[in-house]
Amino acid sequence: MTTSFGGSNTAIHKDPKLLRVPTSFNGLKSAYSSILLGKRLHVFHSLSASSAGPTSIIRAVSTPVKPDTSVEPKRSKVEIIKEHSNFIRYPLNEELLTEASNINEAATQLIKFHGSYQQYNRDERGVKSYSFMLRTKNPCGKVSNELYLVMDDLADQFGIGTLRLTTRQTFQLHGVLKKDLKTVMSSIIKSMGSTLGACGDLNRNVLAPAAPFARKDYLFAQKTAEDIAALLTPQSGFYYDMWVDGEKIMSAESPEVVKARNDNSHGTNFPDSPEPIYGTQFLPRKFKIAVTVPTDNSVDIFTNDIGVVVVSTADGEPQGFNIYVGGGMGRTHRLESTFPRLAEPLGYVPKEDILYAVKAIVVTQRENGRRDDRKYSRMKYLISSWGIEKFRTVVEQYYGKKFEPCQELPEWDFKSYLGWHEQGDGGLFCGLHVDNGRVKGATKATLREIIEKYNLNVRITPNQNIILCDIRRAWKRPITTALAQGGLLQPRYVDPLNLTAMACPAFPLCPLAITEAERGIPNILKRVRALFEKVGLKYNESIVIRITGCPNGCARPYMAELGLVGDGPNSYQVWLGGNPNQTSLAKQFKDKVKLHDLEKVLEPLFYYWKRKRLSKESFGDFTIRTGTEKLHEMVDKWEGIPLAASRYNLKLFADKETYEAMDALARLEDKSAHQLAMEVIRNYVASQQNGK
């Protein structure tokens, strides 16, 4: 029997010294070890032909028991918790039964796999008031009418009265007490929803364009996202055991998904394990996948561990996929060995192979991703260390085929799908902007009324907005009126800066937040708008602004034209250089910029963008072309907006000689001739007014 094995046995580490960890960790220990019946796994290495150097390829062969003389490699605390958890059950199952309002550290790690984080209100002093945030899993952002209404009810009955639309097309429900967890979880499950795998070290929610277009490529992208989500859903039943007493409420899976999951022809699976793909240890860290169609970058395709793009024939028939790998946003302040990274091309596969290719990539990360230091456990660090050629070689061994080169694609474009659109099947859809994805107050009541009255299904976008689907033409006018009365405006009435802005929740509930994000962004956007007006930028001109309360990057600030990343109380790192189409990575520009000093940094940047940009050049592209050194010079030497003579129809110099004389004097004071002349004039006017 030849199988693969889920440990960190072949990790090649991305850090300044490229450390290599011993390869002895047996990832099949714990509850699954009883299945081995007294045998152990013997690991041996074969060399890759990759130009990147030797690669450890794992095969686990059943052999007689021998004394284990290997040195146990360092593992993170979370790896040990997973190993002893009986597939994500213990001690969470016991902790949920205690009278305490919180759960212990091990259970706190495990409940993430169930889709929940333990939190407390950081605004309050004294005794911590614990609650839980629940995150749903909605491939493609699809939410049925029934599930939406249930989530709306749960927010009022058990949460803080609001729903949060996330950047990964899911709901977050904040403020659920421990004693209410089972009621809330079971309500979601019985409404055909799920929170399974919305957090934790496994595949998270799979993104796809939220637009309900009746087009072959969009429908195929969405079906593929749903199939990938099903393929990588945990199978051991821990979720249903915990929340609905083992009653498994699941929709039917496609035969293709079942076949791909069970296939072990290339050593990807753990035979006889309750988790054939994940094993006892699951993945080293979170794993993110997005699927889209050419030109549509509503999903931030390059920020994912795997990006999948439908490739169609000239007549629109899907034929295969380009695959991109190695994206990820999270980093750690002042640790340059951690970094945001864009995904890069891996190769092209025919459409019938996509599940096998995705599975091979996931298994490569499962086998080789670091499990000793979670800061370096994302797949981007493995690829950064190995190089794409070596990574491709290893993936191909699990895939069983060679990847073809990626197909040429047209330029990408960010699509928001706000406003009214034709679906293509006779129906309409309406995309609604929701500031920071926070559904509350009149907005919440209005959405509830419309969704319930017209029996609408909805979709959540990766930009924290919501789409009402399958609207009959006769309903457009009354729905438009009801939306306006509830404060849900059509996009032309919303400030363009707000339409593309995003922020993470941060304070008061996120335990990782260093400073404000969601609560702070409304005022920051107003201040940016005021600067736009001050430097002469038009109202319809906009930039992509994203703010996070810590460097983990949940709102993807490293793709923004202007990213603000919390690095202290009321303090932000400033990142510049993303572009509106989400295809360029921003660069760190300044550290420790205090909230009250933002104008000192942003005013000169906006001023020079207005005056020195190329035709139709975005702010992000302008900052990249200008370069960091020149941008710093602009900010450091800024003395305020110069008074332009043309604004007052003034012609200061009637002859060349006067100008040259004034210019020579001005240079002595490191000024321009115009600045010195205006100073002389102002002084003269002031002296006359004072009667001198």
Automatic annotation (TrEMBL):
EC number: 1.8.7.1
Any GO BP: sulfate assimilation
Nitrite/Sulfite reductase ferredoxin-like domain location: 131-187, 421-474
Cofactor(s) it depends on: [4Fe-4S] cluster; siroheme
MF annotations from Gene Ontology: 4 iron, 4 sulfur cluster binding; heme binding; metal ion binding; sulfite reductase (ferredoxin) activity; sulfite reductase activity
Enzyme class: oxidoreductase
Gene3D superfamilies noted in UniProt: Sulfite Reductase Hemoprotein, domain 1
GO cellular component: chloroplast nucleoid; sulfite reductase complex (NADPH)
InterPro entries in the record: NiRdtase/SiRdtase_haem-b_fer, Nit/Sulf_reduc_fer-like_dom_sf, NO2/SO3_Rdtase_4Fe4S_dom, NO2/SO3_Rdtase_4Fe4S_prot, NO2/SO3_Rdtase_4Fe4S_sf, NO2/SO3_Rdtase_FeS/sirohaem_BS, SiR_ferredoxin-dep
Alphabetic keyword roster: 4Fe-4S, Heme, Iron, Iron-sulfur, Metal-binding, Oxidoreductase, Thioether bond
PROSITE patterns the UniProt entry points to: NIR_SIR
Boundaries of every Nitrite/sulphite reductase 4Fe-4S domain copy: 230-403, 500-637
Superkingdom, natural source: Eukaryota
Primary localisation category: plastid
Oligomeric and partner information: Monomer. Interacts with ferredoxin.
Family in the record: Belongs to the nitrite and sulfite reductase 4Fe-4S domain family.
Protein name: assimilatory sulfite reductase (ferredoxin)
Organism: Olea europaea subsp. europaea
